Structures are given as C-alpha cells and as structure tokens.
C-alpha cells in the first residue's frame, strides 16, 4: 500500500477531553469558536473557483473552494545552495520547476471537491455539494461552508506553531438520519520547492 496515495478511517470514539488540558481548551475556544463579530462577512464570496492562501511565521497553506488542502509548505532550514522549503502538495501537482504546468494543475484542482488532501466525507462525490462560501475569521483564517444533501459542512483552516490545522464540522440539517464516514485523505506528495532543477 502506497501510504501517500491512500486514505485513513478515523475512529472518533474515546478521545481525550479538552477539559484535561486548560491551555488547549482556551486556545480551541478562542480560535475555533469565535464570536460572530470576528467573522468578516464583507470578505466572503460564493465562488466555486475561489481558493484561499494563508500563513503564519514561515508556514503557508492553500485550500480549495471545498476546503481540501492543496498545498502546505514550510521553511525547514537549509544551506545557501539548498532552498530548505518543503511542501505537501496534492498528488497531481506538477514539480516546482514546471511553473506554468504547476499553476495550471493547481487552478484545475481548486473547484474539484475530490482533489486535495485532509479531512473529507468519504461519499462526497455522491453528495452533490452546493456552491461553497468562503469567509475569513479575523480577516486571516479561511472558513468554507457548503451544503450537500441536507448536510451542512463547515471547514475552518488556520496555522498554529507551524502546523496547518483543518477543523471539520458536519451538521445534519435534514429531518432524517444521515450515515457517512469522515476520512483523512492522505493523497499528497512531499516536494522540496527547488525551482531550478
């Protein structure tokens, strides 16, 4: 099994409580559960071809219109002759030195709900997702929301301490029960961003 082109099912039962770690609870409450005035509605868009790039202290990421991670990169150190910037790219991304082809494959992946990596609903391709809405928390961190067959999906992205975080929330808004699997799609390649060779 090629681990970089697979998916992993996650069991969310019996996870430790955030009550056990007051610092983590404080951080989660502040960052992932913002006050309504922290969301800037004037910067929202409903465009299936939109994407968001964001970063913090040398770590950057780009997320598709449907909240899939297309790229996250970080400077890990290096010598003058070696760039030292490494990225996790969606599996179909071109090599860094193929600038035009890389940009084109990235743009094609932006509006495809099945391209990229990170958390997703296993059966998303059968759910007919609606038009995604992109807004920003604190004018900085992208939040993507869309509906799919009675499910409301909200994805909050942020970076903390060099880690790209994808908070994934699914709410059943229909009157009937919904069964679905949330999986961690690890369909990515690791690349050194060397634009010369």
Describe the overall structure:
With 197 residues, this protein is mostly beta strands. Helix content is 12%, strand content 40%. The strands form three sheets. A five-stranded antiparallel sheet has the order 2-8-9-10-11, with no helix packed on it. Strands 3-4-5-6-13 form a five-stranded antiparallel sheet, with helices on one face. Strand 8 and strand 9 form a beta hairpin. The longest helix has 12 residues, at 99-110. The model is unreliable at 1-12 (pLDDT under 50).
Task: Describe the structure using short key phrases.
mainly beta, single chain, 197 residues, disordered N terminus, 2 helices, five-stranded antiparallel beta sheet
Alpha carbon gap, first and last residue:
29 Å
- What spatial form do the alpha-carbon principal axes imply? globular
Helicity, in percent?
A: 10-25%
> Main beta sheet, described?
5 strands, antiparallel
Estimated radius of gyration: 18 Å
Strand order of the largest sheet: 2-8-9-10-11
Task: Give the tally of β-strands.
Answer: 13
Low-confidence blocks of residues? 1-12
Average the pLDDT over all residues and give the rounded result. 75
How much beta, percentage-wise? 35-45%
**Structural class estimated from helices and strands:** mainly beta
SSE run:
EHEEEEEHEEEEEEE
The tally of helices reads 2
In short:
The chain has helices at residues 22-32, 99-110, and strands at residues 7-9, 39-45, 52-56, 59-63, 69-75, 85-90, 118-121, 133-137, 141-148, 151-160, 163-172, 182-185, 188-192.
């Amino acid at each position: 099994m090629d681990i970089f082109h697979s998916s992993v099912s996650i069991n969310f039962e019996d996870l430790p409580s955030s009550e056990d770690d007051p610092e983590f609870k404080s951080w989660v409450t502040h960052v992932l559960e913002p006050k309504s005035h922290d969301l800037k509605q004037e910067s929202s868009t409903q465009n299936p071809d939109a994407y968001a790039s964001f970063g913090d202290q040398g770590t950057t990421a780009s997320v598709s219109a449907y909240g899939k991670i297309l790229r996250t990169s970080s400077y890990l150190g290096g010598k003058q002759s070696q760039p030292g910037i490494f990225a996790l790219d969606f599996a179909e991304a071109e090599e860094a030195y193929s600038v035009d082809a890389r940009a084109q494959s990235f743009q094609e992946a932006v509006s495809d709900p099945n391209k990229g990596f990170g958390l997703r609903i296993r059966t998303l391709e059968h759910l007919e997702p609606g038009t995604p809405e992109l807004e920003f928390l604190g004018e900085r961190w992208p939040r993507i929301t869309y509906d799919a067959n009675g499910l409301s999906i909200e994805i909050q992205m942020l970076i903390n301490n060099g880690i790209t975080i994808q908070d994934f929330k699914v709410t059943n808004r229909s009157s009937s029960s919904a069964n679905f699997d949330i999986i961690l799609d690890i369909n990515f390649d690791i690349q050194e961003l060397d634009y010369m060779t």
